[in-house]
Each structure stands twice: as C-alpha cells, then as structure tokens.
Amino acid sequence: MLDAVQIGDLVAADGVPFPPVDQEYLFQARQMQALSLAVHIPLVCFGLSFPMMVLFAELRYLRTGDPLFRTLARRWSKVMLALFAVGVVTGTILSFELGLLWPGWMASFGNVFGLGFALEGFSFFVEAIFIAVYVYGWDRLGPRAHFVSGIPVAIAGITGSLFVISVNGWMNNPREFTLLNGRAIDANPWAALFGNRFFWHEAVHMYFAGFIVAGFLIASAYAWGFLRGRRGRYERTALTIALTAAAVAAPLQILVGDWAAREVAQAQPVKLAAIEGLGQTTAGAPEHLLGWYDGQKVVYGIEIPRLLSLLAFHNPNATVQGLNVVPLADQPPVNVVRFSFQTMVGIGTLLALLSLIYFYVRFRRKRLPTSRWFYRAVIAAGPLSVVALIAGWVTTEVGRQPWIVYGVMRTSEAVTGAKGIPVGYATLVAVYIGLLAAVVWLLRRFSRVPLDSPEPGPAIPPGVADAG
Amino acid sequence: MLAEIPMVFILIGLAAYTVLAGADFGSGIWTLFPVGGRSSRAATRDFARHAMGPVWEANHVWLIFVLVVCWTAYPVAYASIVSTLTVPLFIAAVGIILRGASYALREQLEATREQRFVESVFALSSVLTPFALGAVTGAVASGRVPVGNAKGNLVTSWLNPTSVLVGILAVAVSSYLAAVYLAADARRLGQRELERDFRSRALWSGLVTGALALAGLLVVRLDARPFWNGLTSAGGLAMVGLSAAAGIVTLILVWRSRFGPARASAALAVVAIVAGWAVAQQPRFLPGLTVSQAAASRSTLIAVIVAVVIGAVVLVPSLLLLFGLFLRGRLDEGPRTGVPVLETRGAAGSRRPRLVAVFALACLLVGAGLTVLTDAGVTLAVGIVCLCACAVSAFVLATTTGETDT
Ligand code: HDD
Ligand code: HEM
Ligand code: HEM
C-alpha cells in the first residue's frame, strides 16, 4: 500500500507532512543561529581572499627569485591552514545546526536549496585536498608545481562561498517551486539557485567584503608592529600586499552596495523600508542619517530630502513603499535592521576614505605613508571591517524576518520541536569563547616566530628526527 | 530506482567517513590511551598526531557530504532524524569543534601544562564524536526515529541498547583502523619500535572489535527484531559474512606484518558493515517511510545526481593525488629534498606602469558608470567586470612599483 505513493508525494497520516510545532525558545534558536554564522563568516573572508594573497606572494618569488617572497608566502600559508581548519569546524557546526534548529525548513524546502550545499561540499573537498598539498608540499614539490597546487585552493574558496550564497539569495528571493500543503514540490533547483538575480549582488558584495576584511585584519597586525618599530623589508612587503588588497576593494564596495540596495528595493520592499525606517509609502522619499524609528517615522535623525528615492530608484520623485504595506506582524524589527545598515555604511565610508589616503601617498609619493595616525587608523580598520561585515549580514538576515523563506515560510514554522535550546545555546557560547581564545593565542604564536628561524609549523616528531 | 541513487551516494560517503575519519578519531584515542607498547608515551603521541596531518581536513568533509545529500534528496527523513536525535548530534558537533580547535593548537604547543590539557580535550572529543554518531546510526537502525518534528523521545531514541552498542562499536572500530594504519605509517617512516607497538595494538583491538560485533548481534536480536531479521536475510548475511571474513584476513595480515594489504582489508571489513546495515534496513528508511517515499521530486534527484557526478570528476583525481603523495611520503616532514632554490633575478616590477594606471582608471570610469546607471543584466555585468579589473590592475600597480618595491 505504502509503495503506491509516488516519489516526492509524501503525505503523512494527517495530510500535512511536517507540521510546525510550538517552540518556547524560538528567539534563542535564532540567536544561536546568528552567533554561529557570525563566528564563521570572518573566517570565510580569509578562505576567500587569503589564498590569492599567498599565491601572489609566491608568484612574485617565481618572477623575481627573491627569497623574501618565498618566506612570506610560506609563513602566511601556515596561518592560512590554521584558519582554514577553524573555518572547517565552524562550518561543520553550521551544517549540523541548520538541520538541528530549522528542521521544518529542511523538510519543506531542502529539495530546492539543498543542491547549493551539496555543490559547496565538493568545493570544500577540493579546497581541503589542495590546501594540504600546498602547505605540506613546500619542501617536496618543485617551485612551479607547488604554485600550481595552490590555484585550486583559491578557486575552490570562491566557488564554495558562491554556492552557499546562492542558498541565501534563494531564501531572500524564493522561486522555482510550487507550494503544496506548505511544502515545495516541482522544485527546479538549478534555476532556483543560480537563475536568481538576488544571488549576484550578494555574491559580489561578499567577495569585496572578503578582501576588505582579511586585508585590513592582516594589515592591522603589521601596522601594530610598525608602530613598535618593526619596519623591515619583510614587514613592509607584507603590509603592502594586505593593505592594497583591502584598499582596492573598499572604495568600490560602495558602488556594489548601491547596486545591492537597488536590488533589495525591487525584490524586498519591506526590507528596504526597514533599512530606511520608512513608515508610510512616500513619493520623493527622504533619507535619514542616525535617529530612531518610533513605530511611525524616524525621529532625531538628519533628514536629506528625496535622497532615498534617488538612491533606490535613480529618480528623486520615485514612490518608495513603506512598512505600512504589510501588517505589523510581517514587519522586521526596524531599529535593528536600520542600525546595522547605518553601521555598515558608516564604517564602509570610513574604510573607503582610508583607502584613498593610502593610494594617494602610494602613487604620488611612491612610498608607504609615514604618519603614525595612518597606522593607528589601519589598526582600527581591521576590527571595524569585521563589524561592518556582520552588520551587513544582520541587515540582510534580520531584514528578512519574520520569514525564513521570504514571504513563504515563517521562521516560527521552521523551528525544531526539540527541547533544551537554552542548554545548547549556553554550551555553544562557551565553546566559541574557547575557540576565540585559541585562535588569538595561535595567531600571536605564529607572529612571534623569528623570521630567520627554521620554518614554524608542524613539528617534526622527535622520534622521526632521531631515527633519521 | 532514481530515488535510491542518492542513498547509494550517502552510503558511499558514510563508508568513506567511517574508514578515513574513523582512523583519524582512532589515532586521537591512542594518544589518550597509549596502552600496551614499549615506546614512550610522548613518542607515541607525537607520532600518532603527526601521521594524520595532511589528510585530516579532507577526511572530515565526507560527513558534510553525507549531510547535504541527505537533506537535499530526503528532506523529510533528514528533518525527522535531526530533530529527534538533536542531543547526540549536538554532542558530535561540539566534539568536532573541540577536536578541530585542539588539532590546530597542539602543533604549536610544546611540553607545557596547556599542552596536556589540549591533548586531553583532543582525545576526549575523539571518543565522544564517533560514539555520538554511532548512537545516531543505532537509533535509525532500530527504528526509533518516527517521521515528524522531534516526534521521537529525545533521550531513549539514542540511549538504548542498540544505539549504545553501535556507539561503542564505532569507537572500537576507529581504534582498530587507526592501529592498522599507524603501524603501516611507522613502517614507512622506519620506526621499528612504534611499528611493533601498533602491530600488537592492531591485533588485540581487532579481537576486541570482533567480539563486540558478535555480542552486538545478540543485542540487536533482543532489542531491534526487524533489523535483526534484515541482517539475517540472505543479503544481510552475505555482508556480515564478508565483514567477518575481511576482519579475519586483516588479523592474519597484521600478524604477518603485511600492513599495506591489511589497510585495504580492514577498510573492506568496515565498508561491508555499512553495506550490511543498508541491506538489512531496505527499503525502510524510517518507520512507515521507505527510501522512495522519502525522496524529493524527480528534478531535485536528477540535480543531486548530476552535481555528484560532476563533483566526482573533480574530486576523485584530486583525492588520488592527495593520497598518492601522502602514502608515498611526499608530504612528510623532514629535511628538504631536492627542491631547487630559484636564482634572484632582481626586481621585476610592472614594465609599463603608466599603461596599467590608464587601464585601471578607464575600468573604474566605465565600471562605475555602468553599475550605478544601468539595471539591465548585461550592462550591469560588464560594469561589475570592469570594477573587478580595476581592482586587480590597481593592486598590481600598487604592489609592484614604488619604493618598497615588493
Ligand atoms: C566589510 C564589509 C562591508 C562593507 C564595507 C559594506 N558592506 Fe554592505 N554588506 C556586507 C558587507 C559590507 C555583507 C557581506 O555583510 C552583506 C550581507 C549580505 C550580503 O550580500 O552582503 C551586506 C549587505 C548589504 C545590503 C543588503 C543586501 C541584501 O539584503 O541582499 C545592502 C543594501 C548593502 N550591503 C549596502 C552597502 C553600502 C551602500 C555600503 C557602502 C558603504 C556597504 N554595503 C558597505
Ligand atoms: C549565506 C549563507 C547563510 C544562510 C544560508 C543563512 C541562513 C539562515 C537561517 C536558516 C537562519 C534562521 C532562520 C531565521 O532566523 O530566519 C538565519 C538567521 C540569521 N542569520 Fe543567516 N544565513 C547565512 C549567512 C549569514 C551570515 C554570514 C550572518 C552573519 C552574521 C547571518 C546572520 C543571521 C542572523 C543575525 C540571523 C537571525 C535573524 C533573526 O532571527 O532575527 N546569516 N540565517
Ligand atoms: C549557513 C551557512 C553556512 C554553512 C552551512 C556553511 C558550511 C561550511 C562548512 C561545512 C565548511 C567546512 C568545509 C570543509 O570542511 O572544508 C565551511 C567552510 C567555508 N565556508 Fe561556510 N557555511 C555557511 C556560510 C558560509 C558563507 C555565508 C560563506 C561565504 C560567503 C561561506 C564560505 C565558506 C568558505 C570559503 C569556507 C572555507 C573555510 C576557509 O577557507 O577558511 N560559508 N562552511
């Protein structure tokens, strides 16, 4: 009897395949998810951009034969491997957690978006394989073969996050399926993930963010050393590569961000209204800097007339939909979204300015800046860019609320029925604090290895050395 | 038919994970209990830690592969499993974080008090994770996961005779595999003493694992009758027999110190267990839900299959390369071996800085114009490409010219 049921037409006894449940701790579940993502995403930035910087340094070695570049690439590659290992474990947690916390989402839509994660899995496989060959192969492969073994690492870092982001793009702009009893049927996963225009701005914006975050963080470590007198040729070279990678991306990020905002205006008008705190649908809508949304409008903000219409639709008189187009229950928490967005844009503007100063000195005076204030600013830029990154994601993700799949499934319909979320949350917080401490300790340790010492990294087991 | 193919992928992934990551967990276990050997504790620990270095990350991606294929191809079954078995899965996840973090850390620690702490965390998580994942397997095998959002019992679904047994068996199998592999690695590195140690560990842990497996059959018979019936059906028996035979052959090979073939037959014994589980359960996935009923619709299944095939085309040669290099010792630590050092050729800056600068500026203007002013797909895409080209050329210009001359 059971066998007569068609593939994909599972219907449980009550007619609803995976009914939603009451979950007392929905809010904690959301926070737990957000925490894990916020821990993972800065590591992802390194996965995206660091391999390219390391390969660039090695390429310079191949071109010039200057051993300094080899030392640089080699030392960086050790850091890259350690960060990759932490990226792997935090990412593994995420892939558990998406199912553990949001089984309703998995059950109803796994058939649509799951493909993105499957492809991601292959990318990370390739990345894990070649990163091992690259980092462990420094003394074993010829110089060119070694360089080539690093190329798949860079490519896989990019494709991997491309695939994950396609899932996020789909959650924000779901399409290519039919809904039956709250569950997706007739899914067309390829088109859903990659034929989705919401995907492209997220991917590009994230890549630029990857270079900004990793570049400024690395640069801020070297700037710290600069202020303490460590300004040898090695340090100058390392600083130049990292800082330049961030500085080329930061000013352009504003243009990409503007594109992102226009896409949001089209696909998610309610999110845009939350970003700007626009209570009522308005023609020629103004933009507010700072201020507070009091449930109707922004108070205490600096108003710039017509700017919102201009930015979102390139027309100062365009009509922008307000939050009032949907009932209150369907509106995201406006102030969280707004505040995050302004944080991102504010920091993004400062980072762009810093980059322009850097380029001015670099190209006009043909040297690195000498002002101590410049290096202090670079030190601050590292952590600030992480803040901007997370603020950006909070804008996207909280702005999507109360929907897990925009306009289709509510977060409360997706959450698990299992008890004990607070216990899991507390455990995870403790574990992440430990992880953070470990990473900080590890990076300090890497930076302390003297330049002319034999390579740091996996120690030779004493037994092996004796035997040899 | 179509509905079962992703399940085959999942089983292949599970088998690979059990064999590869299992050996990895096992080597962690031996660092905690370096029992029954003559080499010093420290030497054993250093050796076991070192042996897995290069393949560690790749081994663990198999688990992710299993999860993602499962949630794409069998969404409702996956959601039922993870919501009922939240506790052991969460334990496994925490074990994986702790393990990864201590793995990254301990390479950098010398003999300090912190090191001992980190070692213990590492070893403990090496026990915890396979146990928890084994318990999950036992829960599914004994039919304790009903369809629905956390419909099963949060505790007894995984703390029951079958689950506990499979959990313990997972730990035992891991230690056994690791002992065999480490013996082979010790031989490759010419470490006589360690080789002898791990040979004897492989022998006795193999016997213990075999005994546990036999005792386990009894537990399954009492606790999970339908699963027992499956195991003792023709196909199930064949797999159980194959596993037993491969196990015995492995013991003989280890006894004779033929570690290379022993690696292979030990792996075969484990693969046969996974296959036996699948045969014993089929076509049931969860109670009242067969594999084909759980399957997603046709286009999704085809997409998964296409993705896996494309992935395999890239992955299989890469994996062969990695293990080829690893097993031939090309990724071992040690003094450099015949890698030429390049001659210094002096600075090779960009030869036409002006041209690059003009190009970067042109890209910036065109790119900015197109991205800000157009909304149509093609022009926007051209704009973004121009912006990227601007970024790359400015980067090259700034890093290859000027005073630091990097
Ligand atoms: C270092 C990081 C960083 C910086 C400097 C900026 N952004 Fe950003 N922004 C992100 C990092 C980020 C991100 C990677 O965190 C997000 C989250 C989702 C996404 O696609 O990118 C994001 C999202 C995001 C969104 C929402 C997109 C969506 O919901 O799909 C908008 C509208 C902007 N950004 C706009 C801007 C503007 C106008 C910036 C100008 C200064 C800016 N961002 C700088
Ligand atoms: C690209 C991949 C990502 C996917 C597939 C994804 C998926 C999810 C899911 C399933 C949830 C839970 C459901 C919900 O609350 O609506 C969620 C919530 C959330 N995510 Fe993401 N996420 C991604 C990236 C990120 C990143 C990198 C961050 C960085 C911090 C982030 C921040 C958040 C936040 C803050 C929430 C909670 C929103 C709320 O409950 O108010 N997301 N995300
Ligand atoms: C919900 C969201 C996410 C899940 C489930 C997830 C899952 C994972 C997993 C399982 C890994 C480890 C892969 C391995 O074993 O090699 C990983 C690493 C990685 N993830 Fe995520 N991820 C998520 C969000 C993101 C986002 C938003 C991005 C990019 C924008 C991203 C990009 C990466 C990259 C580049 C790595 C490699 C780590 C490194 O190179 O440092 N992930 N992720």
Helical percentage of chain B: over 70%
The ordered string of helix (H) and strand (E) elements of chain A is: HHHHEEHHHHEEEEEHEHHEEHHH
What ligands can be seen in this structure? CIS-heme D hydroxychlorin gamma-spirolactone, protoporphyrin IX containing FE
Helical stretch tally of chain B: 15
Largest sheet of chain A: 2 strands, antiparallel
Structural class of chain A, by secondary structure, is: mainly alpha
Low-confidence stretches of chain B: none
Rg on CA atoms of chain B, Å = 26 Å
The global form of chain B is globular
How large is the share of residues in beta strands of chain A? 5-15%
Quaternary state of this entry equals heterodimer
Could you say which structural class the secondary elements and strand pairing of chain B correspond to?
mainly alpha
The helix/strand series of chain B, from N terminus to C terminus, equals HHHHHHHHHHHEEHHHH
Ends apart, CA distance between termini of chain B: 59 Å
The number of helical runs of chain A is 14
**Approximately how much beta-strand content do the residues of chain B carry?**
under 5%
What level of helicity do the residues of chain A show? Answer: 55-70%
What is the gyration radius of chain A calculated from CA atoms? 24 Å
How many strand elements of chain B? 2
Produce the secondary structure layout.
The complex is a heterodimer of chains A (468) and B (406).
Chain A lengths: L25 H39 L2 H35 L1 H34 L6 H30 L5 E3 L2 E3 L3 H6 L2 H31 L5 H35 L1 H8 L5 E2 L3 E3 L2 E2 L4 E2 L2 E3 L2 H7 L5 E2 L13 H32 L6 H27 L4 E3 L3 E2 H4 L6 H28 L13 H6 L1
Chain B lengths: L4 H28 L8 H12 L3 H18 L1 H10 L1 H21 L6 H29 L19 H28 L3 H32 L1 H7 L2 H22 L3 H23 L2 E3 L2 E2 H4 L3 H30 L25 H21 L3 H24 L6
Antiparallel strand pairs in B: 1-2
Helix pairs in contact in B: 1-2, 1-3, 1-6, 1-7, 1-11, 3-4, 3-13, 5-6, 6-7, 7-8, 7-11, 8-9, 8-10, 9-11, 10-11, 14-15
The structure holds CIS-heme D hydroxychlorin gamma-spirolactone (HDD) and protoporphyrin IX containing FE (2 copies).
CIS-heme D hydroxychlorin gamma-spirolactone binds next to helix 6, helix 7, helix 10 and helix 11 of chain A.
